[in-house]
Design brief:
Layout lengths: L1 E5 L9 H12 L3 E3 L4 E4 L12 E9 L5 H15 L10 E5 L7 H13 L4 H10 L3 E4 L5 H14 L5 E8 L12 H7 L5 E2 L2 E2 L4 E2 L9 E7 L2 H10 L5 E9 L7 E3 L10 E8 L4 E2 L5 E6 L3 E6 L6 H6 L6 E9 L2 E11 L3 E4 L2 E2 L2 E2 L1 E2 L6 E2 L6 E2 L3 E4 L7 E4 L27
Parallel strand pairs: 3-12, 13-14, 17-19
Antiparallel strand pairs: 1-4, 1-5, 2-4, 3-4, 5-6, 7-11, 7-12, 8-11, 9-10, 14-16, 14-18, 15-16, 16-17, 18-19, 19-27, 20-26, 21-22, 23-24, 24-25
Helix pairs in contact: 1-2, 3-5, 4-5, 6-7
The structure holds adenosine-5'-triphosphate.
Amino acid sequence: MIIGIDDTDSKEGMCTTYLAAVLIGKLKPYGRLDGYPLLIRLNPNIKYKTRGNAAIAIPFELKNRDEAEEVKKITIETIENMAVFSEENTNPGVVFIEEKRNDMKSDLAHFSLCAVQDVLEIGDALEILRRHGISYKSFKNGRGLIGALAAAGFALCGLSDSTYELIAYRERKRWGELREIDEDSVWEAAGIPGTWDTVDYKNESIVFAPHTPDPILFGIRGESESAVQRAFSMIKSEPVERHVVYKTNQNTDMHLVHANISEVRDDRSYVLSGTVKTFPKTIEGGHVFFELTDGATLDCAAFEPTKGFRGIVRQLRPGDEITVYGSVKDNTLNLEKLKIASLTMQELKNPLCCGKRMKSKGRGQGYRCEKCGAARKEQETVAIQRNISPGFYEVPPCARRHLSKPLIRFRQPQAASSCVH
Ligand code: ATP
């Protein structure tokens, strides 16, 4: 059986992963996990999300098939007892794939990838659930069925690329209190090879623990279970109530679709190649914007939380050939990564005369020297010195989105797949 669960939490507390961790404990007498539980991050631009648009799938091998109904009952009761129904935006959904049938696979693989890359309706999930006779239970408006089915779909069809996260949960009596974690032990654990985003070295901060009142104490991300377990064993902290190692699509870039600028739609995420069209400009609040063109034009932004990454973006010049990675909202791509293919080494400037640049006489009317009155029609090409080099640049860990693939993972082969036809 595969159990998919989503949308049980609120900003004030709870977390779908904690509900799953408790459920895994409750189901122990009925069988065992059939592989890792999955922590799936869905489209990061969905307006209904509470935080990171996470959904969970639990692949479970029943000791006794006759106990399937009991397992479903326990799952539904756990959701009824733990989900935050009072929150308007909490609309839990749970699905149970009881038979792993091959004829479901293409529908589910497509649906799951779309849930990460596109915007779906509750009806899209219901149609697949009914077509394949998958049992489910929804609460309130049932929007959680989208994430629940998507996570279950990945458990059925597999992940083309995956990482691991070990999540440690707090004792209930400490929820909402300051987290007690020994900082030195965290900096030491952060050095374990094959783990990342435990700390942010450049910004000198610990980034693996949330600051919200939810049950998560911290999460360690990495390439393998052994790497995250090793780092976990080094952390000194308040008591850990329980911990779970999830297999995830985090840090895989699964949300990104390769496209041209003319194909871009809001609320989706892309990889786009083009030429820098305008000088970057910094607006109030420290956000940096520039235009990218491949014929069509799109605004790209490095927002203030991306810290030092903005320093790279500010160095871009019209004519630079680049590839941008990020999500589009309000017709603006929010940069997660940037690859500079080539830098322009020349720029057009007003002609030089009497030691100063000439002044423009107005659009299309040429240039005049303010000192001697000499006139010229055209700007001149001058060599410029660049302080950046071609290469790959990324936002720091403190600003990394869950799905964003860190550059240290780019040694692995990339699987490019898209749900957009
Ligand atoms: P947390 O990270 O704390 O678990 P969350 O950020 O995962 O919370 P949810 O409470 O799960 O947010 O809310 C997200 C809602 O959006 C769910 O109901 C989910 O089914 C739905 N959803 C997820 N992906 C899509 C999508 N691609 N299209 C439409 N709805 C989606």
